[in-house]
Amino acid sequence: MDQKRKEEEYGAENNGYRVQEASERQPLNRFVPAPTASLDEWKRMQLIYSAALKEVNTKLEILNAEFQMAHRYNPIEHLSARIKSPESIAKKLRHQGRAVTVENIVRYINDVAGIRIICSFTSDIYKLSELIRKQSDVKVLKIKDYIANPKENGYTSYHMIVSVPIFLSDMTIDTKVEIQIRTIAMDFWASLEHKMYYKFEGNAPENIRRELKECADLVGFLDRKMMAINEEIKKYSDEEEEGVLISESLRRLYGMVNEENDGKDAVTQKENDAVVIDLDEAQLRRADEERTETAQRKKLFSMPKSRKATMK
Fold first, then answer.
1. Residue-wise over 174-209: b if at least 16 C-beta within 10 A, else e?
2. Mean pLDDT over residues 109-128, rounded?
3. What is the 3-state secondary structure (H, E, C) of 227-263?
């Protein structure tokens, strides 16, 4: 069916694609070109992208847990994941002047599956991006560092387009996922900026754009200030931790020796208590005489009667 005939049948205003009545529409059908894609293809595409999100999300949770165990600190505040809505996908393709097909979605739309990572500090962003790049089964396709090079409106974030293998029953498909990494402050600004710009449909007055840019500069200053404070705190923490470790080591080494010496002192004290008598010389002499007299008396009682009589 040529383009002219399609336009006659479906209506030129719909670019040759049939627009269904509300009563007969399926959830995704109105965004699928009837001649080229089916609902099953859309569902399969969504299944693959959902699997890719789970794959990347699991990797990030493992990295965060490992970092927590090694450094007693977790760089990820929280994660959010989403599949781009059919409306947004169709709008983006039409904005590019492309037909809304599964093939075009896979080839030209990089953010169908997206994960947003919120970190505490800017330094965490680069640590995480490095950890992600080191994953053997993650292929980094594109990086946009809007932190080093902010957008004109002040937007800052770190974007990565990666692909991960999704293992199906009959094939393996490398699937793209967009990863956005931001600080809390960056995400706060971006969320509010998006809501405000939505009201103007991207055409905000100059004074509004200027004020938002100033807020973005303040957010950047806040991030740098908080990161500097955190680095200073880490210095104190490291010194205190080192002192604690030294104290514990000394206690383990010298504490055991002291405890052993305390035990020896106790035994020595008991022995001394048994032999040292605080008596003067006269008392000692009388005690010695009493012991001699007692010994003689015992000896006398143990003699035979004949011997005793002779002694008398």
1. ebbbbbbbbbbbbbebbeebeeebeeeeeebeeeeb
2. 94
3. HHHHHHHHHHHHHHHHHHHHHHHHHHHHHHHHHHHHH
Kindly state the average pLDDT of the residues 129-148.
94
Provide mean pLDDT across the span 68-78: 86
Other residues' Cβ atoms within 10 Å of the Cβ of residue 63 = 19
CA 16, distance to chain mean position in Å, is 49
- Is residue 191 within 8 A of residue 156, CB to CB? The reply is no
Beta strands 172-183 and 113-119 are parallel
pTM for the complete prediction? 0.63
Cα 118 to Cα 215: distance, rounded to the nearest angstrom: 19
What region, left, alpha or beta, does residue 37 occupy, with left being phi > 0 and alpha being psi -120 to 50 degrees?
A: beta
* DSSP reduced 3-state for 46: helix
Q: Kindly list the distances between the CA atom of residue 53 and the CA atoms of 83, 105, 161, 222, in Å, as whole numbers in the listed order.
A: 8, 17, 12, 31
Q: Which fold has domain 26-204?
A: Beta Polymerase; domain 2 (3.30.460)
Q: Which residue has the higher pLDDT, 200 or 230?
A: 230
**Separation between Cα atoms, residue 308 and residue 312, nearest integer Å:** 6
